Amino acid sequence: MVSKRRHRHCPLVLLLLAAVISVAGGEFITWEDLTMPALAAVPRGTPVVDAGVKSSAAAPRRGVMTPLNTIVVSQDGTGHSRTVQGAVDMVPAGNTRRVKILVKPGVYREKVTVPITKPFVSLIGMGTGRTVITWNSRASDIDPSGHQVGTFLSASVAVEADYFCASHITFENSAPAAPPGAVGQQAVALRLSGDKTMLYRCRILGTQDTLFDNIGRHYLFNCDIQGSIDFIFGNARSLYQGCRLHAVATSYGAIAASQRSSPSEESGFSFVGCRLTGSGMLYLGRAWGKYARVVYSYCDLSGIVVPQGWSDWGDHTRTKTVLFGEYNCKGPGASSRQRVPWSRALTYDEARPFLGRDFINGEQWLRL
Q1: Cα distance between residue 306 and residue 328, in whole Å
Q2: Total domains present in the chain
Q3: Domain limits at 162?
Q4: Distance between first and last Cα of the chain
Q5: Single pTM value for the model
């Protein structure tokens, strides 16, 4: 079985996060936050930031920092930064206003972190086939201190800030595909560890552990997510609406691994109107946590779904505590004839809490 560990922010960081959110309380993510004004321009003569150079490098010549509402990333040097991380570094710590980072076409080979101190960042590409952020770390890789990187730090892009949103961009981990049962081959393309996050028309590509949906409330709308083994996993409370789930498994695999470990946790994954395609034989979900919660509603499930549908992660006691449900799905993979007896064919009233944005308290932070 794949070994995964829970990670928490330190108390000092949590206090800082609380301070930031108290300043920015009542904010919403809107369609405006996910789009870029036509032909966002960079004034001629604006200094360009390279990887690892802090935002002061982009300050006006007199040395006075002017915060930017729009930061342009372009590999040819015509933007504010040649790298995505350089653009993130330009966002002020403790930011309380929306900053849009436009990433022009290109393959950006870099690891990127949006730290907890920088909420309200929009990462906007120019098409998932044109704007790609990619790296190739695996959990077993060795860092400069001689220790293994681990699943958590293998992410090509890690988002730890609240009110993050992204659109029209690809997040990829290009490490070689992991065979079933391999140790240390987890390779995360995107880790979401902030609250109130939205992704629209993004692609998230990898094999084992593609999307670490770690903690927080997240909304993924019309996104493509590709993987083989537990390719969506974590302890977040997330709604996947109208997404394409594409499997690249060579034998057995699984879509979702929910880490929910107690009935008091509100986490879980809800898939609504999604479509499953690809290869291999896939479990709809595995019980990583004792109280794992995964629901599929109105989804189109291809014949690659294992007839039993669900896995208890090798612990039969979890069959009494998990919530694995399906409602009004279609396709050859939706047949319930051989489903495990501890999964549930939900009624409408049972499925209703999982069907809309109320599942993620969307009325509190989405205005779409």
Answers
A1: 18
A2: 1
A3: 11-367
A4: 40
A5: 0.89
